[in-house]
């Protein structure tokens, strides 16, 4: 452990820079985990009796203990060129002995001293320097054993604890299920299963049963190691070849654990198209819980509208990073986006800039978003802005003449003078608006904006905020407002300070220690680090640019106050650690145009901000480790078709997926996607591709469809997709490959073209009585049906390794595929699209039928291959390709009226009765 972090450890130094605020440079900053602050010596005193070669920094341990390793992190330009590490074993640290002499230390300098005796103090004694700015020591760590390597892994946000396992990986298969400990979890489990079904093509039924090795188990129960105040969202995850098991005290924790499991699977699990797999996860044990309860993203449809579908897409990606708050900025000077009944002029017209996007959410739309988000354990925090940023609302409600104070010239604000009748009219509207919003918003918080009321008399402003607080509270909600709104909050109220920056439009500062000494809950949203509409990597956006390292190089307990050019905590005493309840990252919409531009500005930077909100602060200080985690997140975004910024600061991991492509009855693929490769660090123009169709036909070169990274257009690098057209010689299943080549590296991506349909429901185990299939594609794997099976018109049946203890009857069905299945009774199929009773080309094992078989009037492929039939086999009036090959028939074989005539694919049949008609020679 890092002994310097134990309670009671004290850092001191011979000198300290005293430029106000002096706490910015205090010795304690070098043992607080945060790598972006530290101790700075008092270099301003050089030449006035101060000798930098005699300066020192030391830590007195909470109690004497052995010290194995000392790690120092220096600011490169401000470090000694020579120093001694010294230790003291006496209680008052007066006697010192040198244990290491260090020359030209690295910025990250580690010294193994391996002292097994109890050490009281450790000192860095400077001896020489070339620095003209003294010393800046960002971190000084004292390890009882070897300093552990940075935590990397695939999971982002990085978990509290993750321990790699051993043995074979866990495999998600077509027999996998979501096994729940209580039927009360069914709706949550269905949402989770839905996230796996598109890419895998698996049915993944949700069941209450004993879990098998292929299953994902979700169980409610206590988890050792989760603090009492983190049980709402904490979880444990165990992945082994014996299964994937998630345990949590609450359903939200199960959801979070499942999100982590998704990140352990191949990135293609995020694809909307079905892939080949295999879908494996390496063994691991995870214990995890959040640092903060409020982990949010703010979208701004008020400036430029986003559709319901676009916001749902952003909700999906927020949930994938364990975000749990979506703040929607629904009104601003440009427009008012939410229906308020009785105020038809608030109609969503207006937007910001050329080519802008207007639009409107009905209350029904809003409720649908609330439900969609809640299913993913995300609360929507709605914001309706006042008293400023309100041009659209003021205009729609009659203009300044109705909603402005007497003599008011500004058009962007409501009247806030309590003695002016216009303020009463304005508040009457707000009572209606907040009441209607509260009725459709189950979240406990309503945000009222409240920032940038520049030029408004401050006492009037504070009065207005107090009125809004009363209105919000009267509707059973808790209020949140951007600072300086908290100056109008009632003393002792529960309203939340949404701290972003002290912007006053060039006026005197408002920020003061009183903002942070009331014990009031705070959400931190520092403009300097967390505003996602600021450009990066040369993209358009507000300036200065917020690069990836800047978006990650901060902590809510140490926030830069942009407009005052100081760190807020040492300058103003807050936000205090004990008051911070979470983090939000906003993307303001002035320059946004639809989903793609929002995605580009949000991703990848949101991942690091939400990691700050979820993960322990000690695990969120290593930028290089974060970039490694981010490198495997890129392919996930690519397969989810997210337009993320594939910046060069991250070496993006390449990942591939071959598709499972369904053959029609004509056995033809037409411009079908076959392979996809995510390689975010490499331009797609550097690749070539070749298709091997898997049927013995010649390989062929293929084009690659992809977007390249164009930061000036806010365009990220997409998947590289290879598509092709081909006709296969027979109905069946074919295994082909797409080979991507770049310089001396090759990616071989397998794909499957098959006549087997994608399952929409699954039957396993024993089904008592008759089974009627009325719609969709029902798959039976290893199932036993005790009665007759009936396939209705339009429905499909695919059975493998199953037993039917009655007849099978199908009329007007889609597919009837019996593979490795035993039927105790006749099989009669009329007017189907495709019929297989065994098909070696389709990887469909031979079937046994204990009765006669008749297939008639089918329009597509009919294949009866290597099947045992107890009774006559009759094929008549089928109009697709018909293959009857290698069968064993205890009775006659009769074929009439089929066009084309059946063939045996050079594999003769045996029959105990006569073979007649078109099958006479088969």
Features:
eight-stranded parallel beta sheet; 922 residues; alpha/beta; single chain
Account of the 3D structure:
The model has no long low-confidence stretch (mean pLDDT 95). The strands form 10 sheets. This protein has an 8-stranded parallel sheet. By secondary structure, the chain is of the alpha/beta class. It contains 14 helices and 57 strands.
The major sheet is characterized as: 8 strands, parallel
Return residue spans where pLDDT drops below 50 for at least 5 consecutive residues. Answer: none
* Beta-strand residue fraction: 25-35%
Percent of residues in helices comes to 10-25%
Spatial sequence of strands, sheet with the most strands: 19-18-17-26-23-22-21-20
Shape: globular
User: Helix segment count?
Assistant: 14
Beta-strand segment tally: 57
Helix-strand blueprint:
Blueprint (H helix, E strand, L loop, with lengths): L9 E4 L25 E2 L15 E19 L5 E9 L8 E7 L4 E22 L6 E8 L17 E4 L5 E3 L5 E3 L5 H15 L5 E2 L8 E5 L14 E6 L2 E6 L2 H14 L14 E3 L2 E5 L5 E6 L8 H13 L4 E5 L33 H12 L4 E5 L7 H6 L3 H4 L17 H20 L4 E3 L10 H17 L3 E5 L13 E4 L22 E3 L2 H4 L17 H5 L7 E2 L4 E2 H5 L7 E7 L7 H9 L2 H10 L8 H17 L15 E4 L1 E3 L5 E11 L9 E5 L7 E3 L17 E8 L5 E10 L2 E10 L6 E3 L2 E2 L3 E3 L3 E5 L2 E2 L3 E3 L4 E5 L2 E2 L3 E4 L3 E5 L2 E2 L3 E4 L3 E4 L10 E2 L3 E4 L5 E4 L2 E2 L3 E4 L5 E4 L2 E2 L3 E4 L13 E2 L3 E3 L5
Parallel strand pairs: 10-11, 10-12, 12-14, 17-18, 17-26, 18-19, 20-21, 21-22, 22-23, 23-26, 28-34, 35-38, 36-39, 37-40, 38-41, 39-42, 40-43, 41-44, 42-45, 43-46, 44-47, 45-48, 46-49, 47-50, 48-51, 49-52, 50-53, 51-54, 52-55, 54-56, 55-57
Antiparallel strand pairs: 1-3, 2-7, 3-6, 3-7, 4-5, 4-6, 8-16, 9-15, 13-14, 13-16, 24-25, 27-29, 29-32, 30-31, 30-33, 33-34
Helix pairs in contact: 1-2, 3-4, 7-8
């Amino acid at each position: 452990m890092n002994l310097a972090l134990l309670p009671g450890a004290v850092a001191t130094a011979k000198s300290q820079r005293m430029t106000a605020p002096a706490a910015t440079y205090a010795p304690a900053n070098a043992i607080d985990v945060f790598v972006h602050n530290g101790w700075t010596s008092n270099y301003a005193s050089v030449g006035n009796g101060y000798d930098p070669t005699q300066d020192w920094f030391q830590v007195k341990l909470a109690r004497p203990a052995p010290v194995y390793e000392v790690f120092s992190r220096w600011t490169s330009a401000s470090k000694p060129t020579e120093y001694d590490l010294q230790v003291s074993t006496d209680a008052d640290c007066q006697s010192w002995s040198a244990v290491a002499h260090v020359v030209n230390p690295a910025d990250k300098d580690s010294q193994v001293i391996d002292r097994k005796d109890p050490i009281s103090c450790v000192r860095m004694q400077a001896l020489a320097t070339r620095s003209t700015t003294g010393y800046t020591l960002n971190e000084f760590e004292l390890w009882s054993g070897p300093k552990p390597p940075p935590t990397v892994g695939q999971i982002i946000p990085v978990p509290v604890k993750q321990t790699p396992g051993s043995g074979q990986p866990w495999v998600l298969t077509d027999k996998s299920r979501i096994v729940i400990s209580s039927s009360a979890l069914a709706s949550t489990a269905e949402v989770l299963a839905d996230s796996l079904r598109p890419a895998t093509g698996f049915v993944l039924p949700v069941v209450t049963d004993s879990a098998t090795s292929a299953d994902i188990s979700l169980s409610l129960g206590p988890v050792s190691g989760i603090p009492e105040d983190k049980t709402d969202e904490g979880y444990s995850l165990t992945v082994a070849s014996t299964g994937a098991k998630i345990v949590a005290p609450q359903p939200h924790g199960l959801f979070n654990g499942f999100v982590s499991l998704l990140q352990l699977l191949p990135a293609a699990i995020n694809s909307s198209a079905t892939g080949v797999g295999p879908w494996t996860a390496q063994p691991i044990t995870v214990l995890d819980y959040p640092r903060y309860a409020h982990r949010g993203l703010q979208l701004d449809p008020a400036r430029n509208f986003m559709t319901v579908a676009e916001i749902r897409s952003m909700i999906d990606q927020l949930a994938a990073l364990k975000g749990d708050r979506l703040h929607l900025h629904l009104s601003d000077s440009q427009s008012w986006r939410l229906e308020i009944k009785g105020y038809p002029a608030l109609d969503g017209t207006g937007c910001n800039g050329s080519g802008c996007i207007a639009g409107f959410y009905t209350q029904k739309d809003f409720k649908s978003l609330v439900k969609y988000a809640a299913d993913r354990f995300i609360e929507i925090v709605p914001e309706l802005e006042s008293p400023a940023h309100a041009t659209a609302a003021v205009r729609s409600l009659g203009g300044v003449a109705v909603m402005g104070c007497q003599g008011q010239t500004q058009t962007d604000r409501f009247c806030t003078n309590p003695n002016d009748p216009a303020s009463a009219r304005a508040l009457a509207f707000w009572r209606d608006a907040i009441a209607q919003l509260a009725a459709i918003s189950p979240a406990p918080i309503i945000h009222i904006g409240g920032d940038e009321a520049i030029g408004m008399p401050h006492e009037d402003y504070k009065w207005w905020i107090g009125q809004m607080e009363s209105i919000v509270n009267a509707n059973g909600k808790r209020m949140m407002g951007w600072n300086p709104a908290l100056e109008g909050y009632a003393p002792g109220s529960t309203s939340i300070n949404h701290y972003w920056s002290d912007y006053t439009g060039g006026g005197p500062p408002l920020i003061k220690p009183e903002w942070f000494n009331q014990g009031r809950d705070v959400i931190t949203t520092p403009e300097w680090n967390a505003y996602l509409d600021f450009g990066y990597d040369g993209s358009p956006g507000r300036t200065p640019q917020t690069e990836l390292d800047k978006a990650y190089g901060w902590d809510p307990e140490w926030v830069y106050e942009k407009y005052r050019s100081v760190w807020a905590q040492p300058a103003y005493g807050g936000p205090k650690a004990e008051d911070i309840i979470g983090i939000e990252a906003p993307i303001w919409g002035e320059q946004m145009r639809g989903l793609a531009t929002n995605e580009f500005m949000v991703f990848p930077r949101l991942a690091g901000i939400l990691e700050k909100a979820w993960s322990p602060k000690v695990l969120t200080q290593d930028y290089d480790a974060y970039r490694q985690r981010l490198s495997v997140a890129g392919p996930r975004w690519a397969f989810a078709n997210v337009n993320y910024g594939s910046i060069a600061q991250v070496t993006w991991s390449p990942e591939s997926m071959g598709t499972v492509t369904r053959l029609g009855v004509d056995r033809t693929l037409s411009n079908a996607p076959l392979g996809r490769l995510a390689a975010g660090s490499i331009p797609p123009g550097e690749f070539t591709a070749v298709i091997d169709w898997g049927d013995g036909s010649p390989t062929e070169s293929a084009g690659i469809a992809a977007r390249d990274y164009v930061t000036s257009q806010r365009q990220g690098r997409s998947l590289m997709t290879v598509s092709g057209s081909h006709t296969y010689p027979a109905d069946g299943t074919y295994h082909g490959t797409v080979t991507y080549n770049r310089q001396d590296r090759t990616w071989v991506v397998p794909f499957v073209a098959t006549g087997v349909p994608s399952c929409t429901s699954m039957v396993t185990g024993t089904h008592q009585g008759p089974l009627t299939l009325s719609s969709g594609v029902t798959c039976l794997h290893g199932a036993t049906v005790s009665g007759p099976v009936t396939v209705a018109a339009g429905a499909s049946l695919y059975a493998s390794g199953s037993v039917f203890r009655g007849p099978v009857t199908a009329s007007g069905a889609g597919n009837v595929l019996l593979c490795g299945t035993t039927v105790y009774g006749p099989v009669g199929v009329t007017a189907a699209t495709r019929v297989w009773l065994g098909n070696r080309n389709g990887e469909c094992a031979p079937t046994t039928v204990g009765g006669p078989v008749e297939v008639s009037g089918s329009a597509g492929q009919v294949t009866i291959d290597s099947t045992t039939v107890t009774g006559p086999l009759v094929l008549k009036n089928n109009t697709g390709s018909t293959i009857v090959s290698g069968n064993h028939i205890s009775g006659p074989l009769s074929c009439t009226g089929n066009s084309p005539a059946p063939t045996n694919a050079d594999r003769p049949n045996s029959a105990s009765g006569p073979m007649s008609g078109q099958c006479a020679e088969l």
